[in-house]
Structure formats: C-alpha cells, structure tokens
Write a structure and sequence with these properties.
Elements lengths: L2 H18 L2 H17 L1 H8 L5 H12 L5 H12 L6 H16 L1 E8 L5 H15 L2 E8 L6 E6 L2 E6 H15 L1
Parallel strand pairs: 1-2
Antiparallel strand pairs: 1-3, 3-4
Length: 179
Amino acid sequence: MNQNLLKHYAIALFSLGKEQGKIETYLKDLEELSLVFEKTPEYLKILSSPKVTKKEKETSLDQHFASWLDQDVIAFIKVMIKKKAIYHFSDILKHYRECYNQEQGVLEGRIYTPFPLKKETLKRIEENFEKKYSQKVIFKVLIDKRVIAGMKIYVQDTLYDYSIDTKLNRVRDNLVYEK
C-alpha cells in the first residue's frame, strides 16, 4: 500500500487526537494494539482477511478492545479495515509516532549495534545527543551482526559511525591506496 496514503491516515488520526486533547492516549492505544498484533499475528491476518466479513471484524474489535481502547481509536481501526489498510498497521503507527514526536519536539534515532545496550548506556547516549541537538532524542536499538563492534548511530539524516568495522575499512583503504 502507498506509504503516503498510510501517512495521511496517521495524520488524520493525529489531527483528531489534537482536537480532542488525546494525542498521548491515541499513541498509547496504538502501541498497545501493536503489541497485541505482535504477540498474535494471526489476529491481524483475520482483520485483513477478505474471508472474514466486515461485521465479524468489527464485532471482534468491540468485544476485545472496547473496554480498554479509546472509542476514536477503535473507530479508526474500523476505517482501516474498511479501507483494507489494517495489514499495514505498523506503518500507520510509525507515521503517527513521527507526528507525535514532531509535535513534542522529539528527535528519533536508530542505534545499530551487535549487542543489546544496557539501559544506563542508552540513557547516556540519549543525554549526549540531547545536548548536541538541544532537544529530546530517543533511540531505537537495532541488533545488527554486520557491525563488528561499537555502534552506528543515525539521527535525522546524519550517521555517527563508532564501529570498528568502519575503522578497519579505513585502515585497509589507506594501505591499499598508499601503494
């Protein structure tokens, strides 16, 4: 499905959340729903399936989520089902989070590392980048075995490369090109 269309869906929900004063509530609900879809991917397949009627999907949503999700979020999910976009829920959440972070003045970054980071280490990295950018920065840590040691950090369109593999490649290139 077209990413621009998915982004427009997320922007529409974000705009509604802003009008209602519920942007945090919507984000929390979308994140909780994302966890449900991660733990039970077959449920997302059911909501996406053309073999299951729209009525059955909506009834299922109401039965399972009406007591703990905001009604606007449930209505939004029903629209996503009708538009056959629910299968791309993770993209919609990503775009909603981008809207939220932009509104809150938060930069999102990614850290690629061959090992999980301790919470204290991640917090120190975030604090250092917050000083550098003069705004809140949050990172998503992604395990990448291609990074030999160290880490590669992306913030906005900038790469901060603290990996051993890059340093070794530079040494190799210097040796090769000096000959």
